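Justification of computing resources. Each target in the renewal requires a structure prediction run like the one illustrated here; the chain below, 436 residues long, is used simply to show the kind of job we budget for.
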Amino acid sequence: MTVISYGILFQDDMEENFSGTIQADDPANVTFNSATLHVHHSNSTKVNEAYVVPDLVAGKDVQQFTTLNTDGIVGYGWGAEIVESSWNTKDQQIIFRYAPKVSSPQLVAQQQRGVIDATQRVGAQLLNDLMFGQEAAESEGLLLSYDGQPTSDAAKAVADMAGVKQPVEQYGVFYAAPLHLYQNNGFEELGYSAHTTGVLTGYNRVISPELIIGANAFYGHSALEFDGVYDQAKESVDTFGFGVQGAYRMDDVLFSAQSTFYHTSNTYKDSSVQAKESYTSQNLLTRVAAQYIWELGNKTFTPEVGLSHLWHSRGAFSVDNQNAPDVRYDAVSNHQFSVDASLGWTGTYELEEGELKANVRAGLRQILGDGGFEDILRSGANGVAYATNDVDQTLARVSASLDYTKGNFGASVGVLGEYGENTTDTAFFGRMSYKF
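Resulting structure tokens:
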């Protein structure tokens, strides 16, 4: 008998399972002729520990194999190699490695940050519109009734004679904004393309000409397709968010703050290993900003600086693969800080009926530190890997919108985006609002 190829599943009890599996009345009649060893692995395969290839023929202690075939090693991050010093001996050794460089759940966490960032930017524009509208009303000496319309000239005259500063009445603004995002990440190791459709609703309360507070809610559905090492994997994400926002004006400086807590429900599928698994995450994105207001006729210029913090938390979960070792993800809690600076321009144009505003803003966002989220992956009997995804740390941010108001009604359409060397995020949105 001549052995030219043989496959072994490396796990516990190698001697018991494979030693002497080739039976022969006379071991001398069994030869290994440039034989190839095909290696396979499982959930009980150990990594970073050398396996000694058992003697397949009882009573025959020889060098058995010449070459190693690792086609049976499937699953991202897995590999097998010979121990060079042992290969030309009778005690040949194989060692397995588990070293994934990236994590798809953490990549999705960054994608979801882009979704919530877009909702905050839509909401911030409305805060600015309301604040500028308040300032205009106050500077023109208008005494606004509950519906936001000037009171009679007589009432205005009485207030003027009394020397009383004419107030702006409190009122509320309800708004709804559907949006659609296209996001693309082009990193070579692991990237994605994603489409998200969602709706943002909220309420702002104008407390005074200097103070506005509000709250919002968001639901969105994202569909991602991965490329690179997970080119046969997809993921769907349902995102539920609730946030608060506010703005305070002090002379020509406007301070604003937004904070959004959002929960994601994720379903991951990978056809290459016949896997499907669900997991959830909790996140909090908070941004504070200050902008200087420079008015020049019907134009307003607003340079702005902001600081953002993202907290991302995910519980432990496991992906049960059908033809590869399972992958277990540890619970993680990550933080990411970034700063941004931009310049905005608003042009206000009075129409025969209503008012039209054009808004443009451009700037940069810089992620502080190394930027990427760390994840902890486990596979096999003892494989542990620490993976950190690459991210573009410097990104250009742009936005443009048209706002139309007539009486208590307002409508907007716009586009906003964030772009890096390997990252493209573009959102299209509409917004309807009503004052009451």
